[in-house]
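Incident log, support desk, overnight shift.

02:14 A customer reports that sequence design results differ from what the structure should imply. Their input is reproduced verbatim below. On-call engineer (initials T.W.) acknowledged and began investigating.
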């Protein structure tokens, strides 16, 4: 049973596309499948950073105000 996946379309630089193609070949994946793997890895990494930052801000008592949301954006870049 496979998980349902959403479809997106992205544009990347020509040199990044070439590199992605080589990496996909090395892993014996189609280029779209390899791109999905990398995108999911980066999303999980960024999500981890956001969660860690939110926990740190919570410990510092910086949650619950609109101003804190702006601060979180600055910390997470």
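02:41 Re-run completed on a clean worker. Output:
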């Amino acid at each position: 049973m496979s998980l349902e996946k959403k479809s997106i379309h992205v544009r990347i630089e020509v040199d990044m596309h070439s590199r992605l193609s080589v990496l996909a070949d090395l892993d014996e994946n189609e280029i779209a499948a390899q791109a999905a793997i990398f995108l999911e890895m980066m999303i999980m990494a960024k999500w981890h950073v956001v969660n860690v930052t939110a926990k740190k801000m919570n410990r510092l008592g910086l949650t619950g105000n609109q101003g804190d949301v702006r601060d979180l954006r600055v910390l997470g870049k």
